Amino acid sequence: MSATLRDPEDRRLPRIAGPCGLVIFGVTGDLAKRKLMPAVYDLANRGLLPPAFALTGFARRDWSTDDFAQIVHDAVREHARTPFDERTWEHLASGFRFVQGEFDDDAAFDQLARTVADLDAERGTGGNHAFYLSVPPSSFPVVCAQLARSGLSKAPSDTWRRVVIEKPFGHDLASAKELDEVVSQVFAEDSVFRIDHYLGKETVQNILALRFANQLFEPIWNAHYVDHVQITMAEDIGIGSRAGYYDGIGAARDVIQNHLLQLLALTAMEEPVSFDPEALRAEKEKVLSAVRLGADLDTTTARGQYAAGWQGGEQVRGYLEEDAIPEGSTTETYAALRLEVDTRRWAGVPFYLRAGKRLGRRVTEIAVVFKRAPHLPFALGATEELGQNALVVRVQPDEGVTIRFGAKVPGTAMEVRDVTMDFGYGHAFTENSPEAYERLILDVLLGDPPLFPRQREVELSWEILDPVTAHWATSGPPEPYRPGSWGPRSAEEMLARDGNTWRMP
């Protein structure tokens, strides 16, 4: 086929960014080294970055550009997902720049402005630049103010300037609004990209394909057939070196407010009129605005804190024994909520969300559990081992979908037992799935925002969570639980009141 006949809107074709530059603040941090720098290299190696691309690091370290290039090189060698290619590296590295300075240093930002202008002239970045704030939210005001003062946030005609913000988007509704006010004074809403890396995962996006590309599932995706939904994000490790960030934040603010409520929205939303950003976001916002907490938060929420004990054959410390955790901290390392979505589709269906550390294994999944058949025409005892049908979307680590249903056990008797059908990304496709940050960084450079929550989604999520954290603040310490278990007893009791139990992932 002639190239002139190729449809530029064909989404099956590789989407390649145009001339542009990326400036990373906080380039010495763990996120930049483990995720951002390797993702940039992998995009270049896949041919998805333009020849006219530049990467600029900004930090207080007294580095030269060559020093910065060595840091990127080491990060790429250790964490990149694609093989190291010398030609790709040499071309990419020729577009590296480094600016040394503090966030409140006018001279450093003036130098950054000159560096960006030089890249436009020398590298051909065309005036298009994204600023990645891989820094604590407390630094957002000063960085945004400097970007405005130096003129870096103002895009010349026919060019763009964008800002990328990492979670947390505040620590409650009030701080989220304050944060948005700071950013919106400098960048328009359509130029603000709030990163929730879970939304960049292939299996999360596959929820939309599973639901809306298949007639098989959507007719039963409602309260007539669904008994309940469980959304789990479990980690088998402790907080490690994150005490400075984690204590005072806890499991609910760290992952339920963003990751798990986004997964709930994608699971429960109505079909959008299209997958344009506005249409997709509108349906997610409808779901979040319809989420309701239980009247009694003592029985419809649970929180816990991992204790010391044995896990995986080794003795591990409890949360209160971790380095830099203050004595008597009431920060939860496990949180569970029972929510309902107050719409016609989901009336009366409980959504159970749980997240925790030091649990039985590392897994993130969405389990849609269906009601039992209204009549079973089998002999007494034939279905004793038959559970409820379930469709499970495995987000990580074994990305795929499992369907659990009943089947006859081979033999002369009619005995029905649960079996599973399994789809795994690694078995079904030869293509390697891009890492979440690859997808999200590319979408920033393309200006494609469907996977990025906008401010209204952030605020709705805090409106759901704030009453819970306020209640917990007056409810005494969290309940201890054993490392390697699946959380505190109160979480089990929360489901038992509905006649349900947590899935064993």
Automatic annotation (TrEMBL):
Its EC number is 1.1.1.49. Residues 208-503 form the Glucose-6-phosphate dehydrogenase C-terminal domain. It catalyses: D-glucose 6-phosphate + NADP(+) = 6-phospho-D-glucono-1,5-lactone + NADPH + H(+). GO terms for molecular function: glucose-6-phosphate dehydrogenase activity. SUPFAM superfamilies: Glyceraldehyde-3-phosphate dehydrogenase-like, C-terminal domain (SSF55347), NAD(P)-binding Rossmann-fold domains (SSF51735). The active site is at residue 259. Pathway: Carbohydrate degradation; pentose phosphate pathway; D-ribulose 5-phosphate from D-glucose 6-phosphate (oxidative stage): step 1/3. InterPro entries: G6P_DH (IPR001282), G6P_DH_AS (IPR019796), G6P_DH_C (IPR022675), G6P_DH_NAD-bd (IPR022674), NAD(P)-bd_dom_sf (IPR036291). Keywords: Carbohydrate metabolism, Glucose metabolism, NADP, Oxidoreductase. Residues 23-206 form the Glucose-6-phosphate dehydrogenase NAD-binding domain. NADP(+) binds at residues 60, 102-103, 167. Substrate binds at residues 197, 201, 235, 254, 357. Pfam families: G6PD_C, G6PD_N. Catalyzes the oxidation of glucose 6-phosphate to 6-phosphogluconolactone. Belongs to the glucose-6-phosphate dehydrogenase family. This is Glucose-6-phosphate 1-dehydrogenase. It comes from Georgenia faecalis. The gene is zwf.
